[in-house]
Amino acid sequence: VCRTLSTSDDVEDRETEKGRLEEAYEKCDRDLDELIVQHYTELTTAIRTYQSITERITNSRNKIKQVKENLLSCKMLLHCKRDELRKLWIEGIEHKHVLNLLDEIENIKQVPQKLEQCMASKHYLNATDMLVSAVDSLEGPLLQVEGLSDLRLELHSKKMNMHLVLIDELHRHLYIKSTNRVGQRNKEKGRLSSLVKDASPVPLMDVTNLSTPRKFLETSQFSTPGSSSMRDTSLLEIKEDAELDPEENSTVFMGILIKGLAKLKKIPETVKAIQDRLEQELKQIVKRSTTQVADNGYQRGENLSQENQPR
């Protein structure tokens, strides 16, 4: 506009240009007023929407500022309480461990009484498990407890002598119980023959069907390779029933004794004791068998002499 007015030749041209510009301005104002009138509703809505958006942004900024302040305060409080919480957590773990140790001590104090009951009822596997676990605890986590020193010595001494009892029971079942079954069958046959007054000689003892440990091993030797592992598994799976008589099944009872000796780690001593006492035990079997045969023959002679005398 300034360039146009300055390059004009005279005042008339400037006035003409000025009038043209004023007319253009007036036309622009009229067009603007018309557009405002036409779009008044949209303009009002846009202004109100912009105001509401501005208010929401302002409120959100204030809320975010407040959240930041709260987070900073929480961070400070947590930082202050962290050491105290860690201390309480460690104390809780210590108290829990102490309670577990006290419960274990109470259980171990009852071990001698329970051990006597198991030994009296001949449940040797339970007694061995109880004794081994108690000694391991006394020599492990409870080693520093001075009040358990006497109990530790007592249980350790019982553990050292436990295998002697198991070896004696094993020999009793291995040599005495197995031969007693043969003697019982012979006596029953002799009794029956005396009742029917049979003058024929006493029949020979049938020992082919007796389940001796030797036959148990022989039958397993001729089996397939997989069955030997099954025999080992059966020994590992042997369990003791507290409600049944442990000596009812002699083979299972001897398996229980072997398992107890293995837990006591006394298998080499057991093998050595069996080897040392083998000759003596076999001589005792021969002696007992000879005595039984002589007694049976004497009793049969007495019965025959009484039958030949009418009085």
From TrEMBL:
The keyword RNA-binding does not apply. Keywords: Coiled coil, Exocytosis, Protein transport, Transport. One of its GO terms (cellular component) is exocyst. It comes from the Eukaryota. One of its GO terms (biological process) is protein transport. Residues 246-296 form the Exocyst complex component Sec8 middle helical bundle domain. Component of the exocyst complex involved in the docking of exocytic vesicles with fusion sites on the plasma membrane. Belongs to the SEC8 family. This is Exocyst complex component Sec8. It comes from Nestor notabilis (Kea). The lineage of its organism: Eukaryota, Metazoa, Chordata, Craniata, Vertebrata.
